[in-house]
Design goal:
This protein is mainly α and 143 residues long. It has helices at 3-13, 34-49, 65-74, 76-84, 89-108, 114-122, 126-138. Helix 5 packs across helix 7. The two termini are 23 Å apart. Mean pLDDT is 80; it is low at 1-24.
Length: 143
């Protein structure tokens, strides 16, 4: 899986459904920052300009932070791009799942019952709540 596919999928997934990320490790306690999100958006734009290469047809989509870290560690171009932007593979993987989770919630919050949405939000970690507030403030789920 190429970096630009991972980035595009993470940004697009924010508008698809309101469900928690399946990463059970540190993603639920990963705190996004505006600076990090801006770096990720810049990387996504830059990766679109990269020449497309043939995907590894046998690779499955990463389902956890650890899965994504392993995929990224094997991809020299991904590692180089992350290094250029000062982001580690673990930070990128955690941020990807954190952004998906926050984006899912923000994208579907308007269609949710207000009481149910408030209850759901209250059940999230403080970091997830802060990530949702950040995504709302940046209007990332609407782009």
């Amino acid at each position: 899986m190429k970096l630009h596919h991972i980035l595009a999928a993470s940004l697009l997934a924010m508008s698809l459904a309101a469900a928690p990320a399946r990463a059970a490790d540190d993603a639920s306690h990963f705190l996004l920052t505006r600076t990090l999100v801006n770096k990720l958006v810049a990387m996504e734009a830059e990766s679109k300009r990269m020449k497309a290469e043939k995907d590894d047809e046998d690779s499955a989509d990463p389902e956890t932070v650890e899965d994504l870290v392993r995929v990224l560690e094997k991809d020299k171009r991904a590692k180089a791009m992350l290094a250029k932007h000062g982001i580690s593979t673990r930070e990128f993987a955690s941020a990807t799942f954190a952004m998906m989770h926050a984006g899912f919630f923000v994208a579907f919050e308007p269609s949710m019952d207000k009481k149910k949405a408030a209850q759901t939000l209250a059940g999230y970690t403080k970091e997830q709540q802060a990530n949702i507030a950040l995504v709302r403030s940046m209007n990332l789920a609407k782009n």
